[in-house]
Every structure is written in C-alpha cells, then in structure tokens.
Specification:
alpha+beta; 214 residues; three-stranded antiparallel sheet
C-alpha cells in the first residue's frame, strides 16, 4: 500500500490536479452551505428562490478561494520536494503553513504568522491521521493472510492404535439360487485391525427370458 505522498501525481501535474480538486470541493460544499443559508434567511413562500440566488452568488466565490489555496499549497509542496529531494509528510506540513501565511500577508505580520501556524497544525493533523489509517489497514491485511500447509496429511496416523494393517480377502458364495441362473456372488472382505467390512459384488446377471413362439 502506497503512502499518500507516493500515490499523488508528479510535481508539475500535481498543481493543476490540486487546483481542480480544491475548486470542485469548494464549489460543492459552498453550494450546499449557501443554499441552506439563503433558504433559511428567505421569507416563507420564496425559500427555494432565495436559496438558489444565494447559491449562484456565493458558490463560485467559495470554489475560487479553495482553488487559490490548493494552488498555493501544491506550489509550495513542489518547491519543498525539489529543495529536500524526498517525499514525506514534512513537505505537506511546511507547504500548508506557507500557504496560510502567504494568503494573510496583506493583514500584517501577526495575522500572517497566526495563519501560518494554523495551517501547519491542520496539515500536521491530517498527515498524522493518514499515517495512522495506513498502518491500521496494513495491519489488518497482514492479519488476514492464511498460511496453508503445503503437505496436508503428513504426520497423521493411517490407522488407529492397535491396528496392524489392512487385509483384503475375497470369497465366492453360490447357493442353489445363484447356481440355477449360472451366476454367483463375490464377497470381498476387508479386515483392518479387527474391523471387518464386507462388500458384495454380483456378476453374471441371469439371462433375460424370451417369449417368442416357436
């Protein structure tokens, strides 16, 4: 099972992929949120119309904001990959902090620092949860492996204690009924450590009578 870093797109394509995914997530979530908010704040009888208007006005804006954050995050992530020459959770944590601080630069140094700290903590929690889930899933897969015996039956006793072996004997029994039709019955006796099993086999079936007129 690959880690979240190794299962992502390569770095030049990762930026566009994250921008599109962030925009879609923001647009869908913003649509649901602002539709419900607009319907709640609208008067009775025009709730659907108010929710639809709020959706059209705010959903693209929320999607664009998410896309900007996703693009900056991926750009900083790729920069960390090229700088450190390896993929690990620290790249995502540093990229999240850098993206959060960069977006709040216009609000001043204090706001930028607080936003960077918040973004780094959020990304650290996300990466930690991903690592824990991957380890749990890997543990379940290892526990589900069943080891089969390549030589089943090896070492098992072939007879019960006290049994010396298996003896097979045959005998034929023919009475007046069997001799009348020219046949007999063959009896096969199997002895295994005192236990006897009889198997009767019949042969030479009697001829089928003919009723033709001569």
């Amino acid at each position: 099972m690959g880690t979240p870093e190794s299962s992502r797109e390569p770095c030049p394509d990762r930026i566009l992929d994250d921008i599109g995914g962030a925009f879609g997530m923001g647009a869908v979530g913003g649509s649901a949120f602002h539709f419900l908010k607009g319907a709640y704040n609208s008067p009775t009888g025009s709730r659907f119309l108010g929710g639809s208007q709020a959706l059209r006005m705010n959903a693209p804006r929320v999607g664009g904001s998410f896309a900007v954050w996703g693009g900056l995050f991926s750009a900083f992530d790729c920069a960390m990959v090229y700088a450190r020459q390896k993929e690990d959770p620290w790249n995502s944590i540093i990229a999240g902090a850098a993206a959060g601080g960069f977006l709040q630069m216009r609000q001043g140094l204090g706001a930028s620092a607080r936003s960077a700290l918040f973004g780094g903590v959020i990304l650290a929690l996300i990466e930690g949860a991903g690592i824990v889930m991957n380890k749990a899933l890997a543990g379940q897969e290892n526990m589900g492996v069943i080891i089969e015996d390549p030589n089943p039956g090896v070492g098992l006793p072939t007879a019960l204690p006290g049994q010396t072996g298996t003896e097979v004997g045959t005998s034929s029994e023919s009475g007046w009924f069997g001799g009348w039709f020219g046949g007999a019955k063959k009896k096969v006796e199997v002895r295994s450590g005192g236990a006897k099993t009889e198997i009767l086999e019949s042969f030479d079936a009697p001829p089928v009578p003919s009723f033709e007129f001569k």
